[in-house]
Design goal:
This protein is mainly beta. The chain is built from no helices and six strands. Helices cover 0% and strands 49% of the residues.
Length: 123
């Protein structure tokens, strides 16, 4: 199961590296503040291994869309949850230029037909 959310990057934490039985690994955490709700939430996401280069182009205060999954695991009879990001995309700021109609002038209005013409249907 995967989810998506958007928000402003608040903090990019330092990369952490280590070695496990499966080999070397690296992870990087980052925090965003959501803007989708009445009360914004701060969420800390984790990027693993090959996804860490994401922050070469994304910096704090940029708007991003994060695709993520949530997983939990047990350790010493306690449960821990991770929010793992697998895709982080920069949200393009839309200033409304693409959504506004072109300028309108009086010459754009087609002329009215002859009022004496009984057949005013175009077909």
């Amino acid at each position: 199961m995967s989810f998506k959310t958007t928000g402003k990057v608040l903090q990019i934490l330092p990369e952490i590296k280590g070695t496990s039985a499966r080999g070397e690994w690296k992870k990087q955490d980052f925090v965003i503040e959501t803007a989708e709700e009445q009360y914004p939430k701060k969420i800390c996401f984790t990027l693993f291994n090959d996804k860490n280069g994401t922050f070469d182009k994304i910096k704090p205060n940029m708007e991003v869309e994060v695709s993520f999954s949530i997983e939990s695991r047990e350790y010493n009879e306690k449960w821990f949850s991770n929010i793992n990001a697998f895709r982080v995309d920069l949200v393009q700021s839309n200033s409304g230029a693409g959504n506004t109609p072109p300028p309108f002038s009086a010459s754009d209005i087609p002329p009215m037909g002859d009022p004496d013409d009984k057949d005013d249907l175009p077909f």
